[in-house]
């Protein structure tokens, strides 16, 4: 991860002066300085046709377009996630909003004021990166108070106490940074970013360096902290589970462009394209008639209308199938014979118990596919066994599977 600023001083090094608090020597979690006067609040962030290019360095190298004409808005108090694979331009867009990357064309505005030419420390935005580096020679309270030196001591102490409580570290103020776990350090970095009350907080994959279990817990805590403080935020991640947990809306990016912007549930239920569905984890795509697909899944778009295109695909996601019965010996080996409309014969590869259900890995030949190239998918077992969960069938067994509406979607072909 490219850091916008150098790391803070090593233990024992001189503490940065207060004039450095809003300079390029600030830590990776950058407190927001007091912004210039702006028009009445209410409009929030407006990004219009922003293009970010990186020069190739030679006359024969045209360089790279990292962001290709992105337009989006973030309302006051809203949390927007920029979601996409590595290299899609999401971090470049975030850095352009922050003022860390020059904008080749287009504009970034806050409350109607164009921020072109406004330096990072005058935008009133807070920044938090992947490794929210802390000052090792300061205790937790000293790190949180780093960007609010202009307050009285009583005000600083009250703000630090408030934010440590918000991030789940009440009573940690006098602890040394060296005694903290990775997750606790990120909580301190978040508190430090929130301390100056930034009008916009920009977070660039702040949880990606943590293990998955800790990321899931901190994603929930991050969401609650942003809600509790009423903070407007843009959150960059490549993990759709994180994006769905933290954000009010999710903007999916690929190759420098926006593919879809929607609330998490709408994005999952109605991906705008196969590319969006693939990135969200949908693994197989079955040609289907629009009317049949819409009725079977009861899918509706944002305008409460079903897809009406002539070419549509049933997208099968993780855990997107369910086992609906066992298959008789008369079923053709490897075939796609069904026990009824919308069901297919599958061969069991194996099973595991995870997240409260038996997940059955199956090989299934989907309609329209090559019989010699079955898709390997995961189907959920039934709930009629001991403890409410059926045990998975043995490897090699033949079962009938059907799409589970909760794990499938209909996308344009």
Automatic annotation (TrEMBL):
InterPro entries: AAA+_ATPase, ABC_SmlMolc_Importer, ABC_transporter-like_ATP-bd, ABC_transporter-like_CS, P-loop_NTPase
SMART domains xrefs: AAA
Pfam families reported in the protein's UniProt record: ABC_tran
EC number: 7.6.2.9
Gene source species: Cellulosimicrobium cellulans
Superkingdom of source: Bacteria
Record key words, sorted: ATP-binding, Cell inner membrane, Cell membrane, Membrane, Nucleotide-binding, Translocase, Transport
Gene Ontology MF annotations: ABC-type quaternary ammonium compound transporting activity; ATP binding; ATP hydrolysis activity
UniProt-annotated stretches for the region Disordered: 1-41
Composition skew (Low complexity), residue ranges: 1-35
Protein's UniProt name: ABC-type quaternary amine transporter
Chain ranges of the ABC transporter domain: 52-280
């Amino acid at each position: 991860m490219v850091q916008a600023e150098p790391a803070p001083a090593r233990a024992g090094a001189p503490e940065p002066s207060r004039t450095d608090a809003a300079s390029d020597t600030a830590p990776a979690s950058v407190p927001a300085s007091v912004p210039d006067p702006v028009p009445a609040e209410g409009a929030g962030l407006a990004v219009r046709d922003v293009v970010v290019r990186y020069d190739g360095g030679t006359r024969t190298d045209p360089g790279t377009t990292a962001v290709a004409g992105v337009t989006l808005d973030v309302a006051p108090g809203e949390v927007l996630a920029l979601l996409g694979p590595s290299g899609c331009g999401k971090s470049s867009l975030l850095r352009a909003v922050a003022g860390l990357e020059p904008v080749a064309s287009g504009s970034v505005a806050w409350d109607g004021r164009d921020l072109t030419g406004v330096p990072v420390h005058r935008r009133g935005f807070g920044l938090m990166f992947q490794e929210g580096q802390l000052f090792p020679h300061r205790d937790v309270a000293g790190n949180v108070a780093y960007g609010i030196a202009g307050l009285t001591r009583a005000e600083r102490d009250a703000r630090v106490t408030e934010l440590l409580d918000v991030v789940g570290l009440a009573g940690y103020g006098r602890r040394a940074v060296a005694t903290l776990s990775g997750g606790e350090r990120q909580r301190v970095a978040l508190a430090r970013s929130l301390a100056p009350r930034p009008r916009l907080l920009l977070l660039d994959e702040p949880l990606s360096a943590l293990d998955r279990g800790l990321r899931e817990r901190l994603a929930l805590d991050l969401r609650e902290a942003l809600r509790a403080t009423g903070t407007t935020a843009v959150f960059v991640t490549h993990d759709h589970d994180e994006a769905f947990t933290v954000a009010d809306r999710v903007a999916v990016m690929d190759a420098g462009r926006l593919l879809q912007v929607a609330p998490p549930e709408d994005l999952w239920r109605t991906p705008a394209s196969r590319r969006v569905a693939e990135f969200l984890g949908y693994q197989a795509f079955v040609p289907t008639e629009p009317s049949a697909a819409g009725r079977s899944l009861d899918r509706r778009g944002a305008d409460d209308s079903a897809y009406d295109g002539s070419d549509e695909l049933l997208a099968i996601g993780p855990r997107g199938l369910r086992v609906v019965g066992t298959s008789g010996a008369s079923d053709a080996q490897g075939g796609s014979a069904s026990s009824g409309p919308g069901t297919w014969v599958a061969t069991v590869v194996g099973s595991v118990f995870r997240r409260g259900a038996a997940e059955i890995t199956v090989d299934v030949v989907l309609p329209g596919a090559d019989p010699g190239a079955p898709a390997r998918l995961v189907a959920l077992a039934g709930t009629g066994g001991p403890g409410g969960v059926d045990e998975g069938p043995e490897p090699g067994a033949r079962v009938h599977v059907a799409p589970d509406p909760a794990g499938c979607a209909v996308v344009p072909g």
